[in-house]
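This entry is set out below.
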Amino acid sequence: MRKYLIVFILLLASVFTTLAMPKSVFAETIDINAKSYILVDSNGYVLSEKNPDEKREVASICKLMTSLIVLEKLDAGEIVLDDMVTISRRASMTEGSSAFLDEGSQYALGELLKSVIVASANDSAVALAEYVSGSEYKF
């Protein structure tokens, strides 16, 4: 069940591009700049929605799956968030959205995971794939 909740959270993170947080939990309106969205609490209660049934492509599905695999390895105890990941040349040269990782630098696995989930960082996703599988190709 936890795995599905994590996947749901990751999907929400990929769908929301800009989220203006309400000033209070009881705010009358929530200003979200998106073509469609649905905001659901942990009990399944819909807090806010806009075009919830409109079909949309999922953004960054490879990064979502990378995050899921890393989370599964965390759950299995194979890796921990404090593991230090050394950034390869390949990861540092990855194009597209980026966390601007420097070749040879080390980052905590947890920080790389956050940058994939929050900032959709391609370079962090490659670094994580290399760390858990030895190479992006094997991943």
